[in-house]
Specification:
Shape of chain A: globular
CATH class of the largest domain in chain A: Alpha Beta
Helix content of chain A: 10-25%
Largest interface: A-B, 50 and 50 residues
Number of helices of chain A: 8
Strand order of the largest sheet of chain A: 12-13-15-14-16-17-18-19
Oligomer: homodimer
Largest sheet of chain A: 8 strands, mixed
Radius of gyration of chain A: 21 Å
Number of strands of chain A: 19
Chain lengths: ~375, ~375
């Protein structure tokens, strides 16, 4: 198991490096001539807010009102061009444009104003880095697969279930496919889909658009409908540098002994292991390996999204798993992912890999992997 | 109708006055001896955040890191003691305590840092004032009715429905009661419940805890289960000072001709008007009067929560409505609400009023009115 943990942690560690440290050279001094002035409000902006804006090249422009501030810096994550130092104009607005184009897709960011960390009041918030962060979306060339369309839409339900092991009312989100309510006797497989470190149960539907991806795949006949469940992976108390101490044992009890029985009792599920999958992104992938290997009787399909790999020797009984899907972005070591899937296939497993082109440890990678993984499950 | 509009607008206008203007005398200079030092993190704080804190008297204490800032002010709404000017300590943290105890319940607030408006990174965000604002909760003496308990819990579902009239995919949240999924052939009444000006479809479940209120009422046998639907009332483009120009006609089409048919087609509803109610808080109450009076065939029960009144002469046919519930907080003109209900009763209507003691134009008022109104509906 060691190998997969280390790979998972490397990916995590990269994503956690503060953006400014990553891109020390980024600054507002640059060749503006190259920037096409077709900026439009980011699609994630709050109602009526003009900024932040994005242009057709993937540059982002920010504008923050803080007349008496002495310093406003935008910190963007991976693929986000790092720190952008804003400049104050005569009206008290701080503006600035990223030093270069950003990767397509979703990026977390925040502002540092006079030494304090705050969110951009122009945009919506997304839970990452253990807090609600600002988010910006660079339109992707293939955004159609998670676009809002006039197709039948499933529902995302918030459910509250009492967790005896933690003594608290926990939250899960449950995606049911469009036909779910009409199909009185039809039962569906379930994918338990975990977020990454610093994120929570909202991530896959807010940042990930998992519901829209499924709606569109189902409308195109590419996927047989299944249910998706997300819950909090209890990863936010894991301290960086001490990740190898994380056993996910508390989470395993919540997931396997409390949430799965709740979902099977409250939704029209197929409740055998061949109709139950577990997958996760980044640290959620690490959780997936830990839980699936300790509880082979629970899940029939495994998925790791930028979250390490399985090796053939980790899985004692080949017949206990019917499919393993491993993916990552092209900017985060795709060779290891492809090799892992090849090794698994050579050992007789049904394994598939996918590499998202031009993306890093971010949500466009995971949206695409979900799109590729969905038709692979429960087959 | 004029009268009810004016009353509704008065309530709105009061709530919209900037907090600092409301309480010009509030400042950090006060008699600290009176403050009991039993501060605890607000229950709305983000994971692991210590501040903001509240004490047993209802004081709130804030702490913001912004070492190079020159000014940090907390602006709290009605019942929130107005502006609190924070003071910087040697470590670069700005701290301050409200000038007095705050009303029990939920309060929106934001920070003004060096002249710019930002949210407190310590707490969760709640959509109010047409933006996601910070929120703080002063524990109420009667908080038990919306507490998280080990009782059967309903679900809150996010649904996306295609709106032909607006050409967009709109969002609604649908609360289904605990027994909903198990009761194959049982159908339920539906309450369409609107937010106020500057809020959106999230408000009733996030700030309002409508789902927990219903779960607890149902568990105690005080309410026959029904469905609650919330959607965006299109109120955020209404300009203050021009509210009398708001006709809610676009919203009426979305609600009555798009959302109601969607809900009746996709949920196990009783779809006749005697099993359909409309209610709203503040400007959502204004919408309720406009829509119910123009569409008497659609709704059998009406509810106004700090959102004006009906007069007997507004309703042409007494037999078209089976119940009218009117409520507000004791700090926002309860006489008009009680008189309106008495007038309606004198004219032969089934009308009831309720006044929330010690609260203003805020969510504890509306949580309590929902608790009182729920058993009144569909009877």
């Amino acid at each position: 198991m060691k190998k997969s943990i280390i790979l998972g942690l490397c990916a995590l560690a990269v994503s956690a490096v503060p953006a400014l440290a990553q891109f020390p050279g980024s600054s507002p001094a640059r060749d503006n001539a190259a920037i096409i002035e077709d900026f439009k409000p980011s699609e994630l902006n709050q109602h009526g807010q003009e900024y932040p804006m994005v242009n057709s090249q993937g540059y982002a422009r920010f504008r923050i009102q803080a007349p008496q501030a002495t310093s406003v810096v935008v910190s963007l994550g991976l693929g986000g061009q790092g720190g952008t130092i804003l400049q104050k104009d005569a009206d008290g607005f701080w503006t600035g444009t990223t030093a270069g184009p950003m990767d397509e897709g979703f990026h977390y960011y925040h502002l540092t104003i006079d030494g304090g960390v705050f969110n951009d009041p122009g945009t919506h918030n997304y839970f990452g880095s253990c807090r609600w962060e600002s988010g910006i979306e660079i339109p992707a060339h293939d955004a159609d697969f998670y676009a809002e369309k006039d197709v039948p839409h499933g529902k995302v339900q918030e459910v509250r279930f009492w967790s005896k092991s933690t003594g608290s009312l926990l939250r899960a989100f449950v995606y049911t496919p469009p036909a779910y309510d009409f199909s009185k006797d039809t039962r569906y497989p379930v994918l338990y889909l975990q977020h990454g470190w610093g994120e929570n149960e909202y991530a896959w539907f807010n940042q990930g658009r998992a519901n829209l991806i499924m709606d569109n795949l189902i409308a195109e006949g590419k996927v047989d409908p299944f249910i998706i469940v997300t819950t909090y992976g209890m990863t936010n108390d894991v301290v960086f540098g001490h990740m190898n101490e994380f056993t996910a044992e508390d989470f395993e009890v919540v997931l396997c002994d409390e949430l799965v029985p709740y979902v099977d009792a409250n939704f029209k599920t197929k409740s055998d292991k061949w109709n139950r999958a577990m997958a996760g992104l980044s640290m959620g992938g690490f959780e997936t390996t830990l839980v699936t290997l300790r509880r082979p009787e629970m899940f029939g399909y495994y998925g790791l999204l930028s979250g390490g790999t399985y090796t053939p020797d980790q899985i004692k009984d080949k017949n206990q798993v019917r499919g393993i899907f491993i993916g990552c972005g092209s900017k985060e070591g795709p060779d290891a992912v492809n090799k892992a899937a090849a090794d698994l296939r050579a050992a007789g497993f049904n394994a598939q890999s996918y590499v998202s082109q031009g993306t890093a440890h971010e949500f466009l990678t995971w949206r695409r992997i979900l799109r590729e993984m969905a038709p692979f499950l429960f087959k």
